[in-house]
Design goal:
The protein is 37% helix and 0% strand. The chain has six helices and no strands. α3 runs antiparallel to α4. Keywords: ANK repeat.
Amino acid sequence: MLLDRGADVEQRDANGRTAIVAAAGADLKSTNRYGGTALVPACHYGHVDTVRLLLTTPIDVDHVNKLGWTALLEAVILGDGGAAHQEIVKMLIARNADVNLADTHGLTPLAHARQRRQDAVERLLLAAGAR
């Protein structure tokens, strides 16, 4: 198994439903219709436990989906800047997500956080070296 957490531990999938996220032989490169791995929608929807679980695997933290967004960009662009998304941004930064990886329009996570007035997320990104 990729994750040995015991059978009694509740794990959440990217849709937030109770499910096994990583089973034996799970393909962490598998993508959804938008070209995102499980990490991307988990960040979008603010599923902190799912993100935490996925970040214990060798999943590509800087995977870019068909929209040109990484998990970090999704957390900022589609997140609300609240506690859950702040925690996710912290976890992605701790996992060495590229805080300067821009979308297809050249906008960085920092630029998106500023546009959305996500002040706490902006501070997290700046502290991590975002430009």
